[in-house]
Amino acid sequence: MPSISSASSEAFELRGVSKRYGNIVALDEVSLRFPAGSNTALIGSSGSGKSTLLRVLLGLEWPDRGEIRVDGALLEQAQVLALRRRVGYVIQEGGLFPHLTVLGNLALLPHHLGWSRERIRQRAEELAALTHLPSGALERYPAELSGGQRQRVALMRGLMLDPDALLLDEPLGALDPIVRHELQDELRAIFDRLGKTVIVVTHDMAEAAWFADRLVLMRNGKVVQDGRLDDLCKRPADPFVTRFVEAQRTLRGVSA
Amino acid sequence: MKHAWLAMTAMLLLSGLTHAAPVRIGSKQFTESVILGEVARLASRQAGVQAVHQRELGGTAILWSALQHGDIDAYPEYTGTLTHELLKNVPPDADIPTLRAALKPLGIGITDSLGFDDTYAIGMRADRAARLGIQRLSDLAAHPELRFGFSNEFMARSDGWPGLRQRYGLPQAQVRGLDHVLSYRALASDAVDAIDLYSTDAEIPYYHLRTLDDDRHYFPHYEAVYVYRLDLEQRSPAFVESLQKLSGRIDADAMRQMNAMVKLHGEKETVVAAGFLGVQPDGDGSGMWMRLWLRTVEHLRLVLISLTAAVLIAIPLGVFAARAKRLGHVVMALSGVLQTIPSLAMFVFMIPLFGIGTWPAIAALFLYSLLPIVRNTYAGLTGIPPDLRESAAALGLPRGVRLRRVELPMAMRAILAGIKTAAVINVGTATLGALIGAGGYGQPIVTGIRLDDTGLILEGAIPAACMALVVQGLFEGVERWLTPRGMRLEARQ
Fold it and tell me: Can you name the CATH fold of A10-86+163-248?
């Protein structure tokens, strides 16, 4: 594992990063810093570029212009695999492989890295306790799990190697409200306990504010505002910020 | 289990490679040719030469090509075929010495005429011809009331009816097109008075017909001969001598009788040929179950070797096609084009490359098996949801590991379905291998079609259908066994 550069306390940094898919601009001159140990929520409508931002940080996409720095060092193709191994990545549907049991999913990377069977099982059981996954579930296949359980397993898979950072792309997007609420609580407790660099992508303001003090609102590939919830509500940088904030209906608003 | 499999494959391969050294005689896919092939084989046995007869190798093109490439050493042919189809720069009425000179540069020799001419002829019922006093074609001109029934081919060819009418100045107006099989019955029942036929047709003695003398030499000569490779004169001079001794010994009547024995009385070609030569038939003597077993082994060998090779090549090709999109399209298009080549043509294309027998058939079957496997591998891999493929990448697994541990297992079901399709097609198509000497279940089918013997056709068709079913069932089992349980669960939802 590459050593963490002491020269910089930034876990991730984007400098003038642009990315287009054909005519669509996914990222437009984005510059952002994510300090080590910080929690950040990326918010915005779909197509605003927030998922692309996570993907360029992992080297799943390469920017057309600009540079990515990880722990102060420029991200290059050669280090991508090593980088990915110290970053946990969780996507909306969990991305679990249907042909493998839960344990098989968790074991993929550790097995490749030469971990022993016992070590893998021990780590899996630790994480099952952390994420409140029922103990018998390790032997089950993804198709035999509930949506919430699948998401817990996806998080466990991201945490297997005890990475420095967690990138979560709409991790709770596909869940029903009760499970979602429960998992929001648990995720936040886990973030607080592990103290890792966390970047969560969501389009739900309340969820974003629950996970992170720092909110980054994106639109059409640009950062519109980067601040606390209070800043977005009271000191919007742009009329779009107010529209986005007000578009999040509260129950009080509906019943009034 | 795995070892037994390997041993079996190796055994099958070896038995294909260990060809003995006897002289190889070929024959075309019709009765007269097979009988003449047997006559040649038995005559050489009489002369103390070891010879094998590869029966029913298909049409002229296959035999000619096999002779030129040395896959067979000799086969019965007709002078008219040599002048009209096989040799260029030879006059259509070339005699045998002219042909011998033209064949020599090709390394091919030719015997003198065996004693009969198998050409088009016009036939009438012998009793009726006698009553009308008709012996020669020119006698027909005096009987304008006669009704003719000609095969459609004969009606249409310029060297058929139109030319015949002109040469002999025939006045008959009642001329109908008839199917050749029906024309004998039409003649026997007096529905027509004269038909076209081949001068050695088995039906001529059976229906008591008279073939009219071609006194103005209208029809081209199709003298029966043996053609053989000239290198036999060094390798096996005794064999060449035994072939040459046959010339002049078989007249049209004798050939007709032999054809009739096989086609109308169900005798075996070997028995008929032996009877003609006055020797003991050596016949295979094996019962139906032994024959069935031998053909099953031959058929399985064709299928197993070609399918194994196709799996080994097609899966990597499919992986490659899924990876390299643009080149992948080229791979897919090429394997698609292979599939459009008619099977018989494919088998024939393989002859210059692999000769005749098992190997060209295996090569053709291999090519046919590629497409279903390549296509299903490609579809299985590209059908994996992008977020799953990306999840594997995001874990930090190298490409090879992703392919082995994630992508191929997820595509397994599609790949196996492709192999199953290829296997079933393969079992069916392998029956055509008999036409180029590969044996298998196609052999009784080919013979059955030639002799119009449904029982014989079924002797090949039923086992082939059973093998296809077994293969299908086997692969369904393998599919269940190899498809990861988690994938089956998902399918159930």
Answer: Rossmann fold (3.40.50)
